[in-house]
Amino acid sequence: MKSFAAALRASLPVLLGYSTIGLAFGLVLTGAGLPWILSPLMAVSIYAGAAQFMGVGLLASGASLFDIGLLTLLMNARHAVYGLSMLERFRGSGLRKLYLIFGLTDETYGLLTTVQVPAQLAEQAGGVHSFYTWLTLLNQSYWVAGCTLGAIIGQLLPFDTTGLDFALTALFIVLLMEQIRSVRRFEPYLFAVIAAVFAFLAADSRDFLLIALLVAIGLLSLFRTRLEDKSVSSSKPDKIPGGNKL
Amino acid sequence: MTGYLTAIFLMTIITLFTRAAPFLFFAKRQVPPLLVYLQRYVPPVVMCLLVLASYKDIAFSRAPYGLPALLGGLCTALLHLWKRNVLLSIAGGTALFMVLTRLL
Questions:
Q1: Which residue of B has its CA nearest to A72?
Q2: What is the ipTM of this complex?
Q3: Packing angle between helix A208-222 and helix A187-202, nearest 10 degrees?
Q4: What global pTM score does this model have?
Q5: Exposed, middle or buried by CB within 10 Å (0-12, 13-18, 19+), for A133?
Q6: Would you say residue A240 has pLDDT above 50?
Q7: Which residues of A touch B7 (CB under 8 A)?
Q8: Is B61 exposed, middle or buried (0-12, 13-18, 19+ CB in 10 A)?
Q9: Do the Cβ atoms of B19 and A79 come within 8 Å?
Q10: B contact test, residue of A176, A228, A239 with most B CBs within 10 A
């Protein structure tokens, strides 16, 4: 149980963030008119804050499965980046690896890559992975608790939630600013704007994101030599300072 | 309800796939250079596109001229520059948006 106690201490910063954002999620979900039980269900199964917020908007507006699948892929593609830098750390963790991979959210990744594993555990066989697993499990329990509580409150005390869905736009803005902080090149943003204008003019509103993304990836591939040439930090793995994301 | 459950199941599978992909494909193999390059620059592109997508259907030509969304977004950005507290930035911008949609 030493690893549990250490993980509990290390996870406390996430407790505040996850329980409150989860609470907001539950309120948004019930505010959108969805059955409250979907909130804990999504927290247990999907377990991805930004994608869940987006999912509520899509479910409530009756989006097609294709759109839901594509947007989830776009929204969570960044998680693939995290996995690349965890390949070594998770090696040899056996079956626990399945859960460690499932629970690799922004916050958990931020914590796993920044927290100091207690020396006692680091020496013990399997100690590090036991610590990682507790940390991941505790983080998810905070998220599930917040999402459940928010949905119950939203169900019991219905209030006018018009405009609460702007939280999703605000979340995108925050995530964009965090990207700007870590990727200090103007080209990706310029490409995104060019691609968006193209998709806005040329494509059906429904296909906007798909077309824009394809155009932007095309532009990125085209200007690869330019971007790789002057790129200073492209060889370093991404670090999330403070793990301050969803 | 079945429609909701199908969609949630799909989101679960795809989210898990994005997290598992590196372990499935590159546990024993080198990551191709193009992918290493794209994994760095695609996330900023996606975030930028998601913000633009949130604003693309707003009617800027008639009252309230998209002001709630523009000011709400600006408020989020300024709060984030100031405190860099995710919760505060989102709550502040959303609260302003909700107030403005009721007043304007």
A1: B11
A2: 0.90
A3: 140
A4: 0.77
A5: buried
A6: no
A7: 55, 58-59, 65, 68
A8: exposed
A9: yes
A10: A176
